[in-house]
């Protein structure tokens, strides 16, 4: 038995899933399904990364706790997986107790070895990346990913001796050519390693950040988010003694986008080496999806929601487009015009039309009954040679994660079958009783070719594959797919069974009709949250309130501690309005209060409700009244 372990990155929960997340997850899913077809025992991991500065900032914007915020966004990532037909074996969260335990164990091992030391440091820090940069890594003095000028920070922290392992890592990469694929990213990492490798700051003081895993050797510090996140790959396998770890870890290949190649290609292997853990097998690195001509960005407003696209075009069409359009390792463009062209050309015209024509002709000429090839027919009528060529090209490309090439080879077979119909003219053969045997052979060869195609497209389009197999009167194995060994033998469709009339696999997308439709209204920014009913709304108890006093909370430039009269009670409410209002500005203001919000502690202060405010040009404006309602009266 062979084994294979594939992982996606664990996705950061500072935003909901987008097209880039969908691509990585689908690519890893396709690779896993192909390995299953090869007969391997597989394990496929995905999950969410939930610690760090950005999570705290995102939670503060929603006036909630980091844990509650992480729970909400992590669920979005979990919910999107079945929508995209992704068959992961496990979903890990870095807030899982087992993961925290493993991170502390790895840190303690490296610390005891002497590879972690304490030192004061002054450097340039990007809060968006949550990491220190070297001057040479900046582009025009700005963070290459966020385009912002990093801040200079001076503080004492713990550092990991990455420099100690630089020469070892260079040698490992040079002696293992497939460690980082495609080749251009291997060269990129080796080029970076030509410069001296600085030691990695792996802690954050709790005076600045508490949302993280506490260092096992110093209670006053939490772990740097990348040092925490990368360990998930071994946690999920039951490191150190789990059976899955022993079976799958030696076969590990991580799927990552090119923007996180440095942590995976440098930090992670060195961490493993220092901890005495065998190095993973390698990285598969892909490019970016550009939308509206630019890399996806919330600030530009071109982030594409995979749930919306799937709902519009169907999950198999979406999966096919992503795998066919992107050359793995390079950037690709996502536009509605391109995906519509792929659906209409490749799926509706080529595959869909072939399926419909062949089954319709079999129904018309033989009342749906499969006659089988005639022994006296010309051997040149066989489509097996074309199928063998496609099979070999497909398996080679899939093994190298060149999904676009693999699909192109299958579509070469589809094209050959469409040409075969034109060349052999089944409609003409049907008019000549003497050539009934040739007609039966031609249709059988075409049906067998469709079976072959259906088997090969299963990793990318499992629903379509299953639908075609069922239409051919075949039963799927218990595991739900055919192995490569089961697909390869030619002539497997049983004779004598009767097939029903074909269904439409992929309806064409009517471009003219879409163009004639009025443009959809521009989406609201921020987007509307999930719809609620009047019963849901009735659970919120809104009351008129009057602010009696206000003061700033120490160590926060954002939070004000308010005493608010809501009638028979005075509530203490902590509100994030300190950048827009001074304490003296708000005393006496009449406000709207969410009175039945569960009390929480923010910066150590009890908050027993929430005041409502609107965001106008990054400033907050308290919601109020045209008039002076009595404190405590209900608001409907």
The whole-angstrom Rg is: 30 Å
Mean pLDDT: 91
How large a portion of the residues is in β-strands, by DSSP E? Answer: 15-25%
**Helical content class:** 40-55%
Number of strands: 25
- Can you tell me the residue ranges where pLDDT is under 50 for at least 5 consecutive residues? 298-302
Query: Mind summarizing the main beta sheet?
Result: 6 strands, parallel
Strand order of the largest sheet: 3-2-1-12-13-7
- Total of DSSP H or I helical runs spanning 4+ residues: 22
SS content category: alpha/beta
Terminal Cα separation, in Å? 65 Å
Shape label: globular
Walk me through what this model shows.
- The chain is globular.
- Residues 298-302 have low confidence and may be disordered.
- Helix content is 40%, strand content 20%.
- It has 22 helices and 25 strands.
- The N and C termini lie far apart (65 Å).
- By secondary structure, it is an alpha/beta fold.
- The chain has a six-stranded parallel beta sheet, with helices on both faces. A five-stranded antiparallel beta sheet has the order 19-18-17-20-23. A four-stranded antiparallel beta sheet has the order 5-4-6-8.
């Amino acid at each position: 038995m062979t084994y294979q372990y594939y992982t996606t990155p664990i996705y950061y929960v500072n935003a909901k899933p987008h097209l880039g997340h969908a691509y990585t997850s689908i690519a890893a899913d396709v690779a896993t399904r192909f390995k299953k077809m090869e007969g391997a025992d597989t394990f496929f991991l995905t999950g969410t990364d939930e610690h760090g500065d950005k999570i705290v900032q995102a939670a503060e914007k929603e006036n909630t706790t980091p844990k509650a915020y992480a729970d909400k966004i992590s669920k979005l990532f979990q919910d999107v997986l079945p929508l995209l037909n992704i068959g992961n074996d496990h979903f890990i969260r870095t807030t899982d107790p087992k993961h925290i335990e493993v991170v502390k164990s790895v840190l303690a091992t490296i610390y005891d070895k002497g590879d972690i030391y304490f030192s004061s440091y002054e450097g340039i820090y990007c809060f968006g990346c949550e990491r220190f940069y070297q001057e040479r890594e900046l582009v025009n003095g700005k963070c290459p990913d966020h385009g912002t000028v990093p801040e200079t920070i001076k503080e004492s922290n713990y550092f990991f001796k990455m420099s100690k392992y630089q020469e070892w890592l260079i040698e490992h990469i040079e002696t293992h050519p497939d460690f980082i694929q495609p080749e251009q990213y291997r060269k990129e990492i080796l080029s970076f390693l030509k410069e001296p490798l600085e030691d990695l700051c792996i802690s954050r003081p709790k005076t600045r950040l508490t949302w993280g895993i506490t260092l096992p050797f110093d209670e006053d510090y939490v772990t740097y988010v990348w040092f925490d996140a990368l360990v998930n790959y071994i946690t999920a396998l039951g490191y150190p003694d789990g059976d899955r770890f022993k079976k799958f870890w030696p076969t590990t290949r991580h799927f990552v986008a090119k923007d996180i190649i440095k942590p995976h290609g440098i930090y992670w292997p060195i961490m493993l080496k220092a901890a005495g853990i065998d190095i993973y097998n390698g990285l598969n690195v892909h490019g970016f999806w550009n939308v509206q001509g630019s890399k996806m960005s919330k600030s530009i407003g071109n982030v594409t929601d995979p749930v919306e696209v799937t709902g519009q075009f169907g999950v198999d069409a979406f999966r096919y487009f992503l795998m066919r359009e992107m050359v793995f390792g390079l950037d690709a463009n996502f536009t509605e015009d391109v995906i519509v062209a792929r659906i209409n050309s490749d799926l509706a015209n080529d595959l869909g039309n072939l399926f419909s024509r062949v089954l319709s002709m079999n129904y018309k000429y033989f009342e749906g009954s499969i006659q089988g090839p005639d022994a006296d027919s010309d051997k040149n009528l066989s489509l097996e040679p074309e199928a063998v060529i496609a099979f070999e090209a497909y398996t080679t490309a899939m093994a190298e994660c060149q999904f676009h090439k693999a699909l192109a080879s299958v579509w070469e077979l589809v094209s050959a079958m469409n040409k075969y119909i034109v060349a052999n003219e089944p409609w003409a053969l049907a008019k000549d009783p003497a050539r009934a045997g040739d007609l039966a052979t031609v249709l059988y060869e075409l049906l067998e070719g469709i079976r072959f195609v259906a088997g090969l497209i299963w990793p990318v389009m499992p629903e379509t594959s299953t639908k075609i197999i069922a239409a051919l009167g075949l039963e799927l194995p218990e595991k739900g797919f055919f192995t490569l060994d089961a697909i390869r033998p030619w002539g497997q469709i049983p004779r004598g069974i009767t097939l029903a009339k074909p269904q439409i696999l992929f309806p064409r997308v009517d471009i003219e009709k879409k163009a004639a439709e009025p443009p959809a209204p521009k989406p609201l920014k921020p987007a509307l949250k999930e719809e609620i009913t009047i019963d849901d709304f009735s659970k919120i108890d809104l009351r008129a309130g009057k602010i009696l006093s206000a003061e700033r909370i120490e160590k926060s430039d954002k939070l004000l501690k308010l005493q608010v009269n809501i009638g028979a009670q005075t509530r203490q409410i902590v509100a994030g309005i300190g950048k827009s209002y001074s304490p003296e500005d708000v005393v006496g203001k009449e406000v709207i209060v969410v009175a039945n919000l569960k009390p929480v502690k923010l910066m150590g202060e009890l908050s027993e409700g929430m005041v409502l405010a609107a965001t106008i040009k990054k400033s907050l404006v308290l919601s109020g009244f045209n008039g002076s309602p009595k404190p405590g009266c209900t608001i409907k």
